[in-house]
Amino acid sequence: MPQVEIYTTTYCPYCVSAKALLQRKGVAYTEIDVTGNDALRLALLERAGGSRTVPQIFINDRHVGGSDDLHALDAAGKLDPLLTA
């Protein structure tokens, strides 16, 4: 079972889209809501290599990027192998 973490905010449509894709795939994930939490935002900034936007998605501690990146991996047939590793 892969470890999937997704950093989100409550008002983010891209977060909703990324979570919906993971749910369609039947993947459990840990959601880390950074809304209004400067400490979590700073941790995200450091962990994501300077990326400030949400969502930021990690699969087995590998940073895969945001919602568009997750959907692109899926379209290219590269997401499922990450989720089964």
From TrEMBL:
Keywords: Cytoplasm, Disulfide bond, Electron transport, Redox-active center, Transport. Gene3D superfamilies: Glutaredoxin. One of its GO terms (cellular component) is cytoplasm. CDD domains: GRX_GRXb_1_3_like. Residues 4-64 form the Glutaredoxin domain. It comes from the Bacteria. It holds the Pfam family Glutaredoxin. It comes from Govanella unica. GO terms for biological process: cell redox homeostasis; cellular response to oxidative stress. This is Glutaredoxin. The keyword Disulfide bond applies. The keyword Kinase does not apply. Has a glutathione-disulfide oxidoreductase activity in the presence of NADPH and glutathione reductase. Reduces low molecular weight disulfides and proteins. GO terms for molecular function: glutathione disulfide oxidoreductase activity. Belongs to the glutaredoxin family. InterPro entries: GLR_AS, Glutaredoxin, Glutaredoxin_subgr, GRX_bact, Thioredoxin-like_sf.
